[in-house]
């Protein structure tokens, strides 16, 4: 355990009290809606964080890479959905995980993909459990609920000898919204589209046990989830400034921040220069297109209190420029002398967290425990 | 060694022939200008790459984090400049490196910083070698060459018992230029400002042996470097699309690319979806403000040949959308079937490389050797 003032900077801080509150918020909401909750662990890539999600009631996890599946399976989690369309080159890696006892589910959204999975499965005597990805918002991948191809994909899997486990969708377009009404409508669009796809598969005589939906904004906005069996969400565990702009959290719910140290100033410009640049914050400028642009992040004092109107306005690789958001030229050398510690709330927690080999998890007593995280593929 | 088609994706490929050409280009230019060359290793963070730079004639290295200093010192490199303003909290780490025999140089640009270094040095009986950072372009940190504070900083170091080793500057503003004339002018501004600062220190009776300048664009544009003792540059080792827009390389000089696999399509939109998203490419959209916007990267075939007009137009965490840059809706399912490998040239090599735990270094025979890299602080 290290006291905050002795941490080398930049460091990725987790406010564990806020994290616990965020986990409880989501799990309680899912319990009320009567669905299982499968956290997307791409946000943290950290076993200590995921253990807290499981302890709160999560059922299985969702991953964005097979490396995540391998790491969390090694840590004892078996029910894993790999939620990126399966590339044929990765089937051997998925097979190895299943052979070790991992209950790994994979996804596809094309006849080509389904055929490749089935051929590989039959060749190796493995019945892969495959879910079909559904496009409910035009955002990215997936088969549209009414598309004739949906049944073709289902048949290619089922008749190809694979286990057609269900359907899943992710309404990523919810990230572009910012009113409760629009978010509720998107949650209902995500739900109804995915349920409709499941119904069409069942009407065609195909199995479809699971109906999986979710994104942090739609999960928190959904009013009812009839026909849905599980929800997935990731970034809620930390929240971030993009989520605050969407309206599903407040800045002081954000559990992840970057601890940084003031290393210099340009007085006449109203700049303090800190040792966290874009390598620490990531290049994510997700709030640039939202109603409140926080630059590279919202500046807080070392205790995590938001300093209204002060942002990281610009960044180089290992330098951040801290200044007034309105361009006024305060004497930053006086306000934040060399050596001052600050915390920066990130635009996008998934992107910022990925820049660090470990978190510093702040305990109630104010000391930090090191929680490792991994990266890569 | 792994054959390209068996690599799991996304993977960070180094075209070693291009890298060797880039290293030779820069070192030859520096030899012609009669200055030492100190590569900035923040771009690669990889000992195999840095060994090739040293073998070509580099004198010492420049780092952006003390972790880089530790890693490269452990690999046998002793002459290291840590080119980010020293934070007092990191002095113990710098001291430990020097005590092990590392010839580590640190920098500052303020009396506050200089005083903190000198106090710590005296307390621990260590004469730190310190260079003063000069601001020659208004871009970031540094004391202006004519600023009275320059002499105060020099005195705080020299009279404080430290070794005032020299001055250094980085004209990062060169990244916003794109004509040979403007780049030559910026190179001269960088040179003359730094030489002037050195002269002022010497005129005040202070030592100033080293005059260190550089950025990839100014290093390649400089016509003469009178008074300069060494040049630093980093991204030239790989180059990238930002550098191509600035005009200091061509796209087919770029030695770093991300190998990716097609995992699906949205035919009616003209999209191929690949398994490299922003987690692989980074969120860097550095070409967005330049004359040619490449989205998240320029698409090439698996052999590295540029596919004109095809870019990664959008990205999610682990999904990239490959489409025509002009918005035309080609049948990407026909052109790039599921399983097709593509290479994506990055906007910013430093940012993209940082997303990967290792490189796949392509040898002349077409096989890849794994070269580890590190990250974090």
**What is the H level of CATH, i.e. the homologous superfamily of the largest domain in chain A?**
Alanine racemase
Strand runs of chain A, count: 18
Q: From the alpha-carbon coordinates, what is the Rg of chain A to the nearest angstrom?
A: 22 Å
Oligomer: homodimer
Strand percentage of chain A: 25-35%
Q: Unreliable segments of chain A (pLDDT under 50, ≥5 consecutive)? A: none
**In CATH terms, what is the architecture of the largest domain in chain A?**
Alpha-Beta Barrel
Count, helices of chain A: 12
Essential attributes:
homodimer; 377 residues; Lyase, Ornithine Decarboxylase, Chain A, domain 1; TIM Barrel; 2 domains; eight-stranded parallel beta sheet; six-stranded antiparallel barrel; 31% helix; D-ser_dehydrat-like_sf (chains A, B)
Please characterize this protein's 3D structure.
The structure is a homodimer of 377-residue chains. Chain A folds into two domains: 3-10 and 255-372, Lyase, Ornithine Decarboxylase, Chain A, domain 1 (Beta Barrel), CATH 2.40.37; 34-237, TIM Barrel, CATH 3.20.20.10. Chain A has twelve helices and 18 strands. Chain A has helices spanning 16-33, 47-55, 66-74, 91-99, 111-124, 149-158, 180-203, 216-221, 241-246, 278-281, 332-335, 349-353, and strands spanning 2-3, 11-15, 36-39, 61-63, 79-82, 103-108, 129-134, 163-169, 210-213, 230-233, 256-266, 271-274, 298-301, 306-315, 320-324, 341-345, 358-362, 367-372. The first copy, chain A, has an eight-stranded parallel β-sheet. A six-stranded antiparallel barrel of chain A has the order 11-12-15-14-13-16. In chain A, β9, α8 and β10 (230-233) form a beta-alpha-beta unit. Chain A is elongated and about 70 Å long. Chains A and B meet through α5, β11 and α10 of A and α5, β11 and α10 of B.
């Amino acid at each position: 355990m290290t006291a905050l003032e002795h941490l080398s900077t930049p460091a990725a801080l987790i406010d564990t009290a806020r994290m616990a509150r965020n986990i409880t918020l989501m799990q309680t909401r899912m319990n009320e809606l009567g669905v299982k909750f499968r956290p997307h662990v791409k946000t943290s890539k950290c076993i200590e964080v995921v253990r807290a999600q499981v302890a709160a009631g999560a059922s299985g996890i969702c991953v964005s890479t097979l490396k995540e599946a391998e790491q969390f399976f090694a840590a004892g989690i078996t029910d894993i959905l790999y939620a990126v369309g399966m590339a044929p080159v990765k089937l051997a890696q998925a097979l190895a995980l299943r052979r070790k006892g991992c209950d790994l589910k994979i996804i596809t959204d094309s006849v080509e993909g389904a055929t490749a999975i089935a051929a590989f499965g039959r060749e190796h005597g493995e019945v892969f459990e495959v879910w079909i990805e559904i496009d409910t918002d035009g955002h990215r991948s997936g088969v549209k609920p009414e598309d004739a191809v949906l049944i073709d994909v289902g048949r290619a899997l089922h008749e190809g000898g694979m286990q057609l486990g269900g359907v899943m969708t992710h309404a990523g377009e919810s990230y572009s919204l910012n009113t409760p009404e629009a978010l509720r409508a998107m949650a209902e669009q995500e739900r109804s589209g995915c349920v409709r796809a499941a119904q069409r598969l069942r009407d065609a005589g195909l199995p479809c046990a699971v109906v999986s939906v979710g994104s942090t904004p739609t999960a928190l906005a959904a009013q009812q989830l009839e026909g849905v069996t599980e929800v997935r969400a990731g970034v809620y565990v930390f929240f971030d400034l993009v989520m605050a702009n969407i309206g599903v959290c407040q800045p002081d719910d954000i559990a992840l921040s970057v601890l940084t140290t003031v290393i210099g100033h340009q007085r006449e410009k109203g700049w303090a220069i800190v040792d966290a640049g874009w390598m620490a914050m990531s290049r994510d400028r997700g709030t640039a297109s939202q109603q409140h642009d926080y630059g590279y992040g919202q500046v807080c004092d070392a205790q995590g209190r938001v300093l209204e109107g002060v942002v990281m306005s610009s960044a180089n690789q290992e330098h951040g420029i801290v200044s007034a958001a309105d361009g006024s030229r305060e004497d930053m050398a006086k306000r934040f002398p060399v050596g001052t510690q600050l915390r920066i709330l990130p635009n996008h927690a998934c992107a910022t967290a990925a820049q660090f080999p470990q978190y510093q998890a702040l305990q109630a007593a104010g000391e930090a425990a090191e929680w490792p995280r991994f990266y890569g593929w």
